[in-house]
Design goal:
This protein is an alpha+beta fold and about 270 residues long. The protein is about 45% helix and about 10% strand. The chain contains 13 helices and 4 strands. Helix 1 packs across helix 3 (about 45-55). The longest helix is centred in the middle third of the chain and has 20 residues, at about 120-140.
Length: about 270
């Protein structure tokens, strides 16, 4: 698998600063940018401000920072999962209709579990058989779009993709989680690693949802949390609720009609 950050929005921290600041300032965005460009706002201040804002639920400014990635050698199993993300992300994927794969470009992705099970040789011989039949179909004049019907989920594919920071955080939440499959998890981890090299201030926020810079706790099933290696260092939501119940000022209750009335009626809760 190859994952390369091709490009990203210039001055991402300044863009985030200006976008957030515009919401909270009597100054116009042009005035804010003039200050940034004149160096009147230190890099430290910009980092601090963004870091504070990133702790809140105000996430739309993050959509204004964009990253471009080139990704190669991932399986069609991964691509099925990746393209389910539909907001704030744009994909171009290598076509199996227009591209005719010759055998040496069909390097199938083999999960480690096949190796561990001692089934690698059988896996490879099956893939060889698929490649041969695929090549035979092309030679017989079938169009690539029909010949591909014998290609398995292990077939390799490539992406050129653009994703904004808000969506990348969401993808990190669910795909860096141990509940996600190893291949897409690795791909997102490598995306994070690429961003860390150029904008480490933003990369620290790309975490599984249980990470200290994200939701902070696991909301998957208790059983999954118990099995998860991150469960040793991040809490499960039920544990937090138990603690709240034990030490909180009031016991946790379901929201009642009374609470809904308070939501409906009080101007300032
Ligand atoms: C561990 C795991 C297991 C999975 N298993 C399955 C499975 O068995 N079967 C299956 O079909 N899929 C499965 N999926 C895929 C999953 O259901 C989602 O399709 C995928 O994670 C894409 O995420 P998203 O819906 O948050 O879309 P994104 O585009 O990434 O969403 C971004 C944000 O926008 C919100 N959003 C997006 N579209 C809308 C909308 N129309 N209305 C309101 N809000 C919206 C999302 O809630 C999210 O907050 C699995 C995903 C994971 C991580």
């Amino acid at each position: 698998m190859e994952v390369k950050l091709i490009d990203y929005a210039t001055a991402p921290l300044e863009k985030l600063y200006a976008a957030f600041r515009t919401c909270y300032s009597s100054e116009t965005p042009i005035e804010i940018w003039n200050k940034i460009k004149a160096g009147n706002i230190s890099q430290e201040r910009i980092r601090e401000f963004i870091s504070e804002r990133l702790k809140t639920g105000h996430t739309s400014p993050l959509e204004q920072v964009v990253f471009w990635f080139a990704i190669a050698g991932v399986s069609r199993s991964l691509s099925h999962q990746l393209v389910r993300h539909r907001v704030g992300i744009s994909f171009e994927q290598q076509s199996q209709r227009y591209v005719k794969f010759n055998k040496n470009r069909l390097s199938f992705v083999i999960p480690e579990s096949w190796r561990r099970a001692g089934l690698e040789a059988e896996f490879e011989s099956f893939m060889d058989r698929c490649s041969q039949l695929y090549a035979k179909a092309l030679a017989a004049g079938l169009p690539a779009e029909d010949a591909r019907f014998v290609l398995p989920n292990a077939a390799p594919t490539n992406f050129h993709l653009m994703v904004n920071f808000a969506e990348l955080l969401h993808i990190g939440d669910v795909r860096l989680c141990v509940r996600a499959q190893w291949e897409i998890r690795r791909m997102v981890a490598l995306m994070r690693r690429e961003i860390k090299q150029v904008v480490p201030e933003l990369a620290v926020f790309i975490q599984p949802k249980c990470g200290e810079n994200r939701m902070g706790y696991c909301d998957e099933s208790f059983e999954d949390w118990r099995k998860c290696p991150l469960g040793k260092v991040r809490p499960h939501k039920s544990v937090l609720f138990e603690l709240y119940d034990r030490y909180g000022k009031e016991k946790l209750k379901s929201l009642s009609d009374e609470e809904y009335r308070a939501i409906e009626e009080k101007e300032q809760l």
